[in-house]
């Protein structure tokens, strides 16, 4: 089973499964403790300069925006990031806090290529971009979540994606086909926004799960923000709805409208004007800074953000929500 | 005699007519969403839309603006995660995929990563996203492109999403699943397919009032020009009504 | 990435991912057709002599017992089976229809080693036993479900399990640790019992999911039996509860109490006397045959089985069900 | 002065006392279930029981009779599937695992596959089940055994579940996660642990009225006998009351 080809991309986040096991043994309590914190407390305690960090799902959908803004507010630097992202990573890029990227897609969806991404990468401010497909980065987390060093795939074969990734092509010893081996990805910090969580960190998600299950199991520190904090009795009544069990979680932040201006399935729809405001202002570095000042740096916390947005606009988002029918 | 319509509306209609009823299809943001909705209201009522972050079999009553938003699983068959969706594609369950990019080459390879050198790019683009996966695992893929010589290039700067790679047999040699590959390109000027023997892009049919020379002039490589070049029907009044009144009444895209 | 060790076990079910892809392309309709059938119709249409077949979950828990009994009733032979099984596979072994086994565990749980297994294997009637752990067989299905030829694991290393399996040990090219590669398992036929399904085969399961998600995605023919048939509108109202989408499914059988004498979470508890009856009677070949005559061969179908069990006993099981509280 | 009790009740109590509070533990069918329930009602109220088919953190109000039954996720923290549970173990989240088998050797290796030759066995046993996985991934494992010379053998006929394999360093050399391995054996006669230097089974403490010679006579290999051999407390009246009245009132197991 020789290596037929190796990507020249850097493994931005080297991993050691035995060290991960030891971490999970010694740093993850099995006790049901109260992990409720504010955004400030959680980000201050678990995020650090240079850490490898990721967010789920993405900017306009069930995204931990209140946590992402707090990361900017606390002024961390040299972050190594995997994305898959829209507004959240674009904010980080505009704030100049990203040093290396395992990049799959950072865009503004229908609004196109993010000027912040272009400025950050073309200026060399982001030092390294290692390329992965959306599925590949999810499978890399899935490998870590399974506790294995790699997963095979038939994605990326034959392209420059393989060449500029850190994957390796081998011949399957059972059937002889070629597969790319994707190295496990163990994040230092993961930020995930959910519909409901109890104070211990047991989480329920509605609608698509994105890659929340994989990321929650593939990180050393997991900060959960939740639209609603529910009693543990509710969790225990529906154990089959628990997608992220408490022992994976380090902090639980109560963040109503935590995904704004993005949407939250069945709770509120996206705030199109709010999204467009970033699209417009981020066209220039100055405009992006103005946005950051107005919506992030100039505000104390998520509560201040929600006050700035205002009850009426939030209510309008609620009226736009997807309904079960 | 059809009324006035935009290039975008025409592309949507030409793309929509390519959908085969009763098939599964990966839908990306933008024109594919409108085309899928139009198709499901016209020629492909049993189309099964698949969105990469988990939504499958949605009833597209309202136009999705993102591949993860709730409209992608509205009254859907299932709402799972990206791994399940992509593994379903890897198992051969997804028939079609729509793709886009900043560059396309004669073999249908697409670039959405960088213009210029990867490590010191002239322009950084969003990245593969699910594009490479869709191009690797779906049975057939269709590209939607602005048609000009800067986008239709002899060689893409960064081969992001596999078309036929370097030509006949190249996909299989690289380990991509046999029987997969690109089948069409819908551009602002015409509809292209691929010449079976060479796997090179071939002009199939022209949009109304577009000439072969115009297409050649806007293509940065030698396009295969068959003896017979067809003509694409302009949007019908009904197609335009559906697009403007039912599918995108707020003119979010069109 | 050389092969350090190879199990000597046979790959009882050779696989070809490209052929599986072609099958999924051409033999699995994307249309929402009516797949409702009786046990007889479904088993007759999709099971065949010598096929490689599996059941989920297992004998006493959410097990497709009505389908398993029908397989015996129709007298198939030379089945190749993966198990993980209790009553269901024990019945098949007693009926002498199993030729080869990818065996993980076939036992009577608290009641110990099944005499039927001993008779079938020690007599040589079962020609081949290839050994796998419970996790390994599930991961083999997961590999097929992912569309990849193998998955790595740290199970089975250093033991006779590895030696008598068909796994291969390699050194991970990223970190240098040893892992066992488990070959994908693509079943010819899978039988899965669920709580609710619509006529197209969209399935909802409550409680633990066992390995239903993996098996449903790792087979060529999938027969679903369901306690309840629900309208597709119910499925579309809760798309996030669909664990098995219709396009994977070939037949849907309405089988109330389909897991009896096993349990069905939240619907009915297990029928201990019913289980003990098999435990007692299966101690001898004659007794096992007597049981088969009484509960399987001598009965026309599942309805006749339920009549034999009787409303009162079934009601007693319902009263023993787990409740959400 | 404690009342009458059975060998099984004694084993359950000795095993229950080994549970560490606030830890995760793989629970198999039989004695481990009773021991886990007893522990959670006495010394380990914060024990997190894990059952291989998906139940985690259940409140064990009624005695489970199978590792997949609803009682294994009664008021549980989560009810997922076997892959998630086993992957959680592979990631290092499961502290303890209880194991059983037909044979055990001096290094704590267990056999539950065949007696005699694998391909022509004298006796076919149920198979590994989750045993091999639990023995591979859990940090520490505890075996529950009938104590006689046919079961405590120099070499198991089929090495199903890894103990220390051939001795010090052997698990790591085989690729099993560092720092894992067996820590104890609860038998019908005594409690054993392992000598750190040799990884060989060592007598730790005797059940009431059992002698060292009796243990030796019933062990098919040379057991390490330390200078000090302890004594296991008989079941307390409270332990027996819990077992008989609360945990297994129908005497399903005991």
Polypeptide structure, described:
The complex is a heterotetramer, with 2 copies of chain A (325 residues) and 2 copies of chain B (254 residues). Chain A is globular and about 60 Å long. In chain A, strands 2, 3, 4, 5, 6, 10, 11, 12 and 13 form a 9-stranded mixed beta sheet that branches. In chain A, strands 1-8-9-7 form a 4-stranded antiparallel beta sheet, with helices on one face. The relative contact order of chain A is 0.17. Chain A is of the alpha/beta class and 325 residues long. The longest helix of chain A is centred in the middle third of the chain and has 13 residues. In chain A, a hairpin with a 5-residue loop joins strand 10 and strand 11. Chain B is of the alpha/beta class and 254 residues long. Chain B has 7 helices and 14 strands. In chain B, the strands form 4 sheets. An 8-stranded mixed beta sheet of chain B has the order 2-1-5-10-11-12-13-14, with helices on both faces. In chain B, helix 6 links the parallel strand 13 and strand 14. In chain B, helix 1 packs across helix 2 and helix 2 packs across helix 7. The longest helix of chain B has 11 residues. Chains in contact: A-B, A-C, A-D, B-C, C-D.
Count of individual helical segments of chain B: 7
Question: Helix/strand/pairing class of chain A, anyone?
Answer: alpha/beta
Q: Which ranges of chain A are low-confidence, i.e. pLDDT below 50, for 5 or more consecutive residues? A: none
Helix content bin of chain B: 10-25%
């Amino acid at each position: 089973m020789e290596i037929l080809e190796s990507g020249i991309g850097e493994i931005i986040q080297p991993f050691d499964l035995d060290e991960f096991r030891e971490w999970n043994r010694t740093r993850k309590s099995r006790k049901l403790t109260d992990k409720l914190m504010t955004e400030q407390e959680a980000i201050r305690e678990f995020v650090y300069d240079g850490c490898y960090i990721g967010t789920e799902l993405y900017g306009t959908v069930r995204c931990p925006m209140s946590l992402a803004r707090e990361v900017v507010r606390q002024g961390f630097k040299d972050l190594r990031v995997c994305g898959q992202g829209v507004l959240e990573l674009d904010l980080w890029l505009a704030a100049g806090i990203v040093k290396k990227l395992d990049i799959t897609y950072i865009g503004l969806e229908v609004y196109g290529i993010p000027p912040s991404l272009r400025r950050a990468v073309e200026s060399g401010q982001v030092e390294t971009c290692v390329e992965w497909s959306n599925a590949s980065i999810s499978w890399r987390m899935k490998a870590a979540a399974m506790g294995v060093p790699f997963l095979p795939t038939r994605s990326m074969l034959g392209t420059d994606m393989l060449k500029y990734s850190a994957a390796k092509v081998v011949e399957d010893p059972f059937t002889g086909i070629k597969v790319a081996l994707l190295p496990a990805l163990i994040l230092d910090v993961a930020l995930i926004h959910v519909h409901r969580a109890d104070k211990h960190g047991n989480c329920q998600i509605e609608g698509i799960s994105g890659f929340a299950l994989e990321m929650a199991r593939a990180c050393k520190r997991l900060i959960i923000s939740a639209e609603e904090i529910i009693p543990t009795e509710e969790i225990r009544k529906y154990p089959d709805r628990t997608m992220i069990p408490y022992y994976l979680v380090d902090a639980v932040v109560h963040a109503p409208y935590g995904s704004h201006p993005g949407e939250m399935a069945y709770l509120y729809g996206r705030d199109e004007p709010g999204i467009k405001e970033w699209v417009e202002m981020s066209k220039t570095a100055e405009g992006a800074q103005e946005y950051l000042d107005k919506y992030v740096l100039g505000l104390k916390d998520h509560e201040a953000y929600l006050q700035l947005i205002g009850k009426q606009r939030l209510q309008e988002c609620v009226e736009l929500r997807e309904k079960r029918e | 005699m059809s009324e006035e319509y935009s290039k975008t509306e025409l592309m949507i209609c030409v793309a929509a007519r390519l959908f085969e009823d009763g098939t599964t299809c990966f839908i990306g943001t933008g024109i594919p969403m409108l085309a899928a909705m139009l198709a499901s209201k016209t020629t492909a009522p049993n189309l099964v839309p698949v969105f990469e972050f988990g939504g499958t079999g949605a009833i597209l009553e309202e136009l999705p603006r993102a591949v993860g938003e709730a409209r992608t699983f509205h009254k859907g068959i299932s709402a799972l995660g990206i791994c399940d969706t992509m593994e379903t594609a890897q198992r051969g369950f997804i028939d079609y995929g729509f793709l886009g990019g900043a560059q396309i080459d004669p073999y249908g390879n697409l670039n959405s990563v960088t213009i210029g050198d990867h490590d010191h790019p002239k322009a950084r683009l969003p990245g593969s996203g699910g594009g490479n996966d869709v191009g690797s695992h779906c049975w057939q893929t269709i590209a939607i492109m602005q048609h000009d010589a800067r986008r239709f290039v002899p060689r893409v700067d960064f081969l992001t999403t596999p078309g036929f790679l370097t030509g006949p047999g190249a996909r299989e040699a690289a380990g991509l699943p046999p029987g997969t590959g690109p089948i069409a390109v819908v551009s602002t000027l015409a509809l292209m397919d691929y010449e079976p023997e060479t796997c090179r892009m071939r002009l199939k049919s022209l949009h109304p009032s577009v000439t072969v020379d115009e297409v050649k002039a806007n293509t940065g490589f030698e396009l295969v020009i068959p003896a017979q070049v067809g003509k694409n029907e302009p949007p019908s009044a009904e197609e335009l009504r559906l697009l403007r009144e039912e599918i995108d009444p707020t003119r979010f895209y069109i």
